[in-house]
Amino acid sequence: MNGAALPSRVHVQEVVARDGLQIEPRFLPTAEKIALIDALSETGVSKIEVTSFVSPRAVPNLADAGIVARAIARRPGVTYVALVPNLRGAQEALDAGMDELNLVMSASETHNLANMGMTPAQSLEGFRAIAEAAKGTGTTLNGSIATAFGCPFEGAQPEAKVLALIEDYLESGLDSVTLADTTGMANPRQVAHLVGAVRRQFGTLPLTLHFHNTRGMGLANVLAALDAGADRFDASLGGLGGCPFAPGATGNISTEDLVHMLDEMGVASGVDLARLLALARALPALIGHDISGQVAKAGRSTDLHPAPANRHPAAP
Questions:
Q1: What is the CATH number of the domain that holds 89?
Q2: What residue numbers bound the domain in which 281 lies?
Q3: Are 186 and 179 in contact (CB under 8 A)?
Q4: Is residue 308 assigned to a domain?
Q5: Residues in the chain with pLDDT < 70?
Q6: Which residues carry out catalysis?
Q7: pLDDT for residue 249
Q8: Treating both helix axes as pointing N-terminal to C-terminal, what angle do 87-95 and 120-134 enclose, rounded to 10 degrees?
Q9: CA spacing 20 to 30 A to 153: which of 116, 258, 267, 282?
């Protein structure tokens, strides 16, 4: 940390219901998805990415997108988001009353072709059509830049390229931007540099950071982003998730680990960690396997334990 003032409030944005569940080996029943989202709404997170209106053939685990989006209990103060891949998906999400649409393309052309089946230029053209369709609806548009910190096929992406894409997003009618470390290739110095450049060029533009913990640097990257002026972070309960079109891309940073770190640093998030931990500890029973989040296993650092009964005297 360079000593800069940390933000007075950090917005924690939960993505487990979409990013977390999309690559799970088994389908989570619709009623259980709805119950999980409703419980997350009670934790104090700022946003919940509910689902994706994508082809059920492409992502079978989210085939119930419309049902889930209409059945959840909307809590005032929480923004409910759907990821949409194209105009058809956007129209379905608008019909379902989503508060925000998340539009995604990759900085890397190779990854965009693998993930979206189109070139970045074609993706941008689609964004403009979605922005036109959303006019007057009150629904906001967020643009995510996948592989912003590196592509597993092409390697590092030039900073100037990412900044130019943000400019394209804003000119296309989008309201906010997410920089996504799709395969966990980012490092703290790189994060600080890019977030600082975005802040210098685009001022108070609402900016989210979406980090994966593929190489164990997720929370270190959060610290670097905080130091550079970021105050919005995606995270996934239990650390679930990963891009199905990116080799080796394991889960997102864990929501409960992120909130625990913020709490210990005295940075407000408005999230109830105890509620979050209860949900994280119940997650393995829902999905059928262990989670990667650490605090759910070890407990909070303020959870003290009785001293062992067989203590030995200190050595001289």
A1: 3.20.20.70
A2: 12-298
A3: no
A4: no
A5: 1-4, 243-249, 311-316
A6: 243
A7: 57
A8: 30
A9: 258
